[in-house]
Specification:
Domain HTH lysR-type: 5-62
Number of domains: 3
CATH topology of the largest domain: D-Maltodextrin-Binding Protein, domain 2
Radius of gyration: 23 Å
Largest sheet: 5 strands, mixed
Pfam family, one: LysR_substrate
Strand order of the largest sheet: 4-3-5-12-6
Keywords: DNA-binding, Transcription, Transcription regulation
InterPro entries: LysR-type_TF_proteobact-type, LysR_HTH_N, LysR_subst-bd, WH-like_DNA-bd_sf, WH_DNA-bd_sf
Shape: globular
Family: Belongs to the LysR transcriptional regulatory family.
CATH superfamily of the largest domain: Periplasmic binding protein-like II
CATH architecture of the largest domain: 3-Layer(aba) Sandwich
CATH class of the largest domain: Alpha Beta
Amino acid sequence: MLSVPNLQWLRSFEAASRNGSFTAAGEELGLTQAAISTHIRALEQQLGHQLLIRSTRNVDLTASGKAYLPSVRKALTDLAVSTTGLFGTTAPGSVTIRAPISEAVLIIAPALASFQNEYPEIEIRLLSAIWADTVLETGIDIEIRLGTGNWPGAHAEALGLEVMVPVCHPDLAVNLHSAADLSEYPLIHILGFENHWVRFFEAQGISMPEDRGITVDTSLAAVEWAAAKGGVALLLGRVARQLASSGRLAIPFETTIPALQTHYLLHREGSSMRKPSAQRVETWLRELFQ
């Protein structure tokens, strides 16, 4: 059985891949260029695969390196988060937020710049997840989840009611005036929320058209498919309106249905002592999700 590679070798590989240079990786990690090269060569020998292509000025990932890098980054991030949670090694102003990937990309990330301009002393670490765990991980200061509010071991605070809104590319929207017009276009389904379209048509009192749609596993993927004129998606109202204001997508008509789930801000039960920086970020998130 293959043993777990040396942690320093993995750090050198991740830094070199991200910086595109052994020299830059060495400067980041406080090592020499030769040390970085030695670490990666040893890692490649242990794995039996070349991970990086060396050239005079930079390095590039091989196919094996591209496949391996996400796992290495996740492992290093998980280790850092766990270490922080258990031993408190982060700065007092550091706050780690975890949210579903769609909310992290479409709601939280675009608003972070203005928050950091107002609170430059707070360092934000934003982690994303496709599927929520059943328990809160150690080292996560704040977690946003979409659901019904029932998670063992966690205090869940609802962040406001949600509605579902149809969205599509602006070029398609000009021909869509009501739910009846949707029969001409594929419907984009999101895993875990497949009944939303059924509920949408039932609320309009019409039969759901023959389904020529496609299914994706995140709202983020649904956004990209809709933006490519692939069909019509049902998205959370706050996400739909933000994308419509940017011009990427359009809301063809103002017909909504209540979402069966809402966003919650989670704390670990019994965690009454919360650092001031986390409390400030929580206040900001409450305002953002209202």
